[in-house]
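Thread: S-adenosylmethionine complex, take 2
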Amino acid sequence: MAEQTVNLLLDLDATDDRDPVLDWTEVFGVNQPVELEIGIGKGRFVMEAAAARPHTSFVALEWAGKYLRIALERSRKRDLRNIRFVKAEAREFVEFFVPSSSLAAMYILFPDPWPKKRHHKRRLIDAAFLREVERTLCPGGRLWLATDHAEYFAVMEDILASSDWLYPVHAEWMGVRTNYEDKFLARGMPIFRKVVERGGREPV
Ligand SMILES: C[S@@+](CC[C@H](N)C(=O)[O-])C[C@H]1O[C@@H](n2cnc3c(N)ncnc32)[C@H](O)[C@@H]1O
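Output below.
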């Protein structure tokens, strides 16, 4: 069922050189708020959100095909119409395909912490990615972060504190627990959460 996935292949016959930025209204067939979850795993969080909020469109991104296939299959069984699955690397997808000021929310829940110092450069959340978050969230749009990893969380907090556009908000955490969250809670590990909101003007 191709309609639940987003085709990122470019039209090589196109004669113009426009950027491949997606048009959400075209992608979903409806003009309503769009939310993106990055690294959905098997997709429990995003699918529950899509089922609970049919008047919001959800982009579900994951680069691991084995997880994405499970999520897509479950979503088909539930006949969720307001969700699209993307198999892509998160940084590239956001940078090249997500229009500016187009997301009402972005969720990054239990991103890979890459605990070894020599692997820190593989972490998703860094200063460059923060610029993309600032660019793609609409005014009032929110970034929702959760991790079990104290050191990565401290890094995230430092990076977020450097933003002129994102402000911490005390939002009640919403949605269901993710698969990883269940695992970490079962091991008695602490969960760190942060929600920030984009201010009202356009970042340059
Ligand atoms: C620790 S798991 C968490 C999964 C899910 N959010 C949860 O809480 O159960 C991290 C997920 O992010 C995906 N991922 C990590 N880096 C990614 C990237 N750069 N682009 C797309 N997906 C990524 C992984 O394949 C994995 O499924």
